[in-house]
Amino acid sequence: MKIVCLLMACLLIWINPALAQESMSEEEKVVHVLNRLTFGPAPGDIESVKAMGVDAFVDQQLNPQSNQWFDPVINFLGQNPVNRLTPVQLFLKFGPPREARNADGKGAAGPRVDPAKRKDLVKIVTDRYTHVASAVVESRLRSNIESQRQLQEVLTDFWYNHFNICIDKGLDHIWAGSFEQQAIRPHTMGKFRDLLGATCHHAAMLFYLDNWENSAPGNSPSHGKFGGLNENYARELMELHTLGVDGGYTQSDVVSLARILTGLGLPNKKTGLPKGEGRRLGYAFDQSRHDFGYKNFLGHKIKGSGEREIEEALDILARHPSTAHHIAFKLCQYFVADRPPQALVDRLSKRFLESDGNIALVLKDLFHSSEFFDKQYFACKFKSPYRYVVSAFRASGVHMGDWRIVFGFLKQLGMAPYSCLTPDGYKNTRDAWLNPDALLRRINFATGLGSGRLPGSPGQAVDYLQLQKTLGDVFSPQTLSVVHSSVPQLKAPLLLGSPEFMNY
Amino acid sequence: MNRRKFLQKASLLSFSLLFPGLQGWALSGGSKIPGSKKLLVIFLRGAVDGLNVVIPYADSRYFELRPSIAIAAPGVQGGALDLDGRFALNPALAPLLPAWKDRSMAFVHCCGSPDPSRSHFDAQDYMETGTPGSKMASTGWMNRLLEVLPDNHSALQAVNFGPTQARILEGPRSVASVQVGPGGVNKMPVDMPVIARSFEQLYSSGNDSMSRAFAEGMEARRKIMGEMDQEMVKASRGAPLPGSARNFGKQISRLFSRDQTIQLAFLALGGFDTHVNQGSSTGQLANHLTAVGEGLAEFIAGLGPVYKDTAIVVLSEFGRTVRENGNGGTDHGHGNVMWLFGGAVQGGKIFGHFPGLSDGDLFEGRDLPVTTDFRAVLSEVLVSHFEVTDSGLNKIFPGFKNSRLGALSVMKS
Lengths: 504, 413
Hints:
The complex is a heterodimer of chains A (504) and B (413). Chain A is mainly α and 504 residues long. Chain A has 3 domains: 69-208, no CATH class; 211-308, no CATH class; 385-502, no CATH class. In chain A, 55% of the residues lie in helices and 2% in strands. Chain A contains 26 helices and 4 strands. The two termini of chain A are 43 Å apart. With 413 residues, chain B is α/β, with parallel strands linked by helices. Chain B has helices spanning 3-10, 15-18, 60-65, 97-101, 120-129, 141-148, 193-202, 209-229, 232-237, 248-258, 284-303, 374-386, 390-396, and strands at residues 38-44, 54-55, 81-82, 88-89, 105-112, 158-161, 176-178, 264-269, 310-315, 336-342, 349-351, 372-373. In chain B, strands 1, 5, 6, 7, 8, 9, 10, 11 and 12 form a 9-stranded mixed β-sheet that branches. Chain B has a 3-stranded antiparallel β-sheet with strand order 2-4-3, with no helix packed on it. Chains A and B meet through helix 12, helix 20, helix 21, helix 22 and helix 24 of A and helix 1, helix 5, strand 7, helix 7 and helix 8 of B.
């Protein structure tokens, strides 16, 4: 009889894996929410979450505007003018000087430039680009490390990668930061449709995925480069930003969407300076380059109406069940596990559809789900190189001095901020980042940081007892015994380079 | 080690150790296993425009469909370099012409994956797992090849060049990763015994993925550093190598010719997604191809006698549209051209069926078709080069029915 009961129990668990769930301990939950909703615990974080309770912490992070913290980072970001300028202002102030522009207005030093002056012009352009890009990278690193509104920072990382643009492409040197400030940050917990619309119209995206040149097919060749269709953005908009690669679209949908998007581009002499949203995001719609024909898009008949077609198409995409599933899956993979539980993905995907893509509501369900606190997912994720570095600065309390050294290190690890060349953004799974050479490089970084000898960020050797307290009860007896028996200078480096600190 | 000695050592942890500046590679010695064959796979990510790599200049449609990006026919200024009277090479790849002339370079035109996906990411995955159309494969075909080859117990038997592990090398067999460019093989704190020992204790549990990665990383590192020490003096006198991928040829050939335990290597180069302003014999694509051509030529030169035992395969996920698009670029297409090099390659030939460029010949009326499965070419290379058996091939490319193995004869028999 006993055996039968046992068999029944096993069978039940096998049929319904949910029954096999074991929840995390209260102690683990505290560390877990800090691991997942923030870039990792900083000194005092565990104590403060314990004091307010896990649920209250989650709610507080989901309402970054409502809390009363004085956030020095927001202040810092606001003070840096580069973070407040619109794309047009950035172009006028930091774009290539008029005489250095190619016929198309971009480029570093067009062919018409007198070769004698070319070198000077290239230097001017390089200096301007470097000036803006430096401020932007430093802002991102500092706000990720220091901001109190950590979920906002984590989601900025998530959505930026979802709608990735690369800072190394021409004018995106000066526009990548604006893309984050104007298209990503205001919508990280808002409506997906708004986020989609803002990224679609922002100058940085129009430039990165070439839609600024996308023009009605057969547009007279006298238009030069605006001579016809360009499918690049249309394809990635469906494959990466919304439906997902298996989301049920065909090559003819790609062409239809590209046609719908014709004419959405950058302001120029002909369009004049934009107003309103166009001014904020840096786009202009050029009717003369738009394809006003009928389009059949994902089974919908789209009448040629100009700019409104784009809104229609974005509505269709944002509300499509494939999009809901794609976003739910990516959120679960990012916040729960590399191979996320199907039931949770399905529930969140439903929530996404019902709430018309309300990101905060989807996240709320995620962070309160039983799957999120399933013991098997505690510290199961392997930190990406970027998360590793940010979490190490947070945990150690070392002040990041020269950000360029940190940027260079992240470049070696293949994950410098804003530098992902391809539109799919950086991955955040173990398979993508765990490799022998990279692990040794992290250990080198840990050795420098923990011993107070990190180039560019010198300081005291990190107090390993404080570090241990900051990170909570996550270390194995083996790790603790190696640390305790090691020479003092290596104790903090060992903790920061330990297997436990590689995971979150 | 006593405390004083440790402090002396620890004080060596200077800037240069943690974040070394530009420094070249320097490897020497290395165990010698005579007769070991080598394979370098280069992946051109972003889908290189094969039609402007190996140009069907005898077909007038080529010039009609590409008014602004066509490469001029051989014989004119900036024109393509004739290969066989029908096809010509992009002039940016001129450094490779000697390999064509000495018959160690060949191409397979209209080659690629039978899966029609025009997604970069899916198509790259398919080509790297070797299972087009199926997302179930979790390992890369080069890792499965490693399983099929006799284990030579070297931490460097397979090497991934670059900061991230490529899908093609993912799998149960361990793979070393080495950075190309600056900072690749410079001294780091873990090279100091006291630090290495402590971390070895931390990562000694053995069986989890992180401990394995650590052990493999240390083993590969010691091997490389051990060989490097002997040449440190020499290296510091030489001019530093700049960090561009342009130097990949020098770096990798040095490793290949000095450490004979290396058998498989992989390198990915990016920047080929030329939707806009592709250029023709000069411009964006030409610049990227110049780097590839010079790098490959330097690789071949650097290999010296090892070249005869080396095969080089250059792949890309799919080709690009035959017609240029509205912005002087090309969009995602289908068939492409595969490049082959090596002492055993049946060189000086363009393989594969190239049907022509009239609308009826094109895939979906817009792209080069795939008339040769990329796995058919790779199978021939593996069988000839590594003597892989039928069952081995089944493991490397599961489900691939290659009824005409050897039909192309890209390798000398």
